Every structure is written in structure tokens, then in C-alpha cells.
Amino acid sequence: MESGEGGGSSSSPAADKTAPPPPPPPPLSRYESQKRRDWNTFLQYLRNHKPPLTLARCSGAHVIEFLKYLDQFGKTKVHEAGCAFFGQPNPPASCACLFRQAWGSLDALIGRLRAAFEENGGLPDSNPFAARPVRIYLREVRENQAKARGIPYEKKKRKRAAAVAGESSSNPPPPPATAASSSAPDPPAGSSPSVS
After folding, report:
1. Which of 20, 28, 42, 175 has CB atoms 3.0–4.6 Å from 179's, for a disulfide?
2. By residue range, what is the domain housing residue 130?
3. What pTM value is reported for the model?
4. Where is this chain compositionally biased, Pro residues type (predicted)?
5. According to DSSP H, which parts of 49-102 are helical?
6. E strand or H helix at 77
7. Is residue 142 situated within a structural domain?
8. Tens digits of per-residue pLDDT, 35-85?
């Protein structure tokens, strides 16, 4: 017998006892999956940009350009100022106004891209998704969409403030110190009253 044949058959039980492959990594959460898709979409946008852009040269202006590009895929009707339904929350009929990305979707997208940028080696100080022009753009989109729907965001803030004020009025304020000391129960026997 050749040593290769004999060695192969006698060592096969040992070869069968090799460590099993490591288990696959746990599936990504919905947020992590979406963040990865968003990041890949943005990188693809940079590659297709004319002229092509590198991430290192990307600025807040390019991020805003990307957000405007995404508007063509939006599903939220945003009425223009000249539209008969401008400012109506529930318009009775259809109009020719364009669909756009909803402000909340853009805000969440920027949050995911800001995190992805830093996870992929970007420095927080040079993060184009955290640039001031991007924050200003998002604020303008929010305000314009609120006006177009006739639902100002400030109104929601006032309701929350009123609710907080209502909660505090339902709990009466503590009695004044003089009234509290005169109506306080007598101390238990054997303990001395505190002197102020």
C-alpha cells in the first residue's frame, strides 16, 4: 500500500472532525439595511455625477443636489403657491403639482447618511451631510411642505406646550411653607421636633 492511500483512509476520521464553519453573521436590522442601501445609492450618484465626484470632494451643495435629484422619485404631492389647493390639508380633487420626497423621509435619509459617512471612515468635522446648508435646506423643505398642506409645524409645537402646561396645572402647587408647617402632623412620641 502507498502511504498516501493508507494515510488518507486512516486519517479521514481526524479530517472529519475539523471545526464547523463559523455561523453567518446575524441579519442586519431594518435600519442598518436601509443605511447600507442609502449609502450605496449615494456612492452610485457620485460615480454617475457629471463630472464624477469623489467622496472627499463632496460638499453640502452636492448633498442638496442629491436630495433634489431624489424628488423625482417622491410620492408626496406638494402644491405650488399658484395651485388652487395650496394650503389645503385634504384637497377635494387632483391637480398638476409635482410629487416630491416628504420632508420626514429626507430628514431620516440625511441622518442615516451622516452615520454611514462616519462609519466608513469620514471625520465628523468634514461630514457633508451635517453641513449647515443641508440643515437649512431641510428646514426650508419642511416649512414649504407645511405651507403647501396648510398644516404649520409650529401648531404642533404649541399643542405639546399646552399639554405640558395642562399637566402641570392638574397637579396643584405645594402649599406655602407656613401653611405646611402649621398643618403638619405632630411628630411621633419619643422623637424631638426639628427646629428651624
Report:
1. 175
2. 29-162
3. 0.64
4. 19-28
5. 60-70
6. strand 76-77
7. yes
8. 999 999 999 999 999 998 999 999 999 999 999 999 999 999 999 989 999
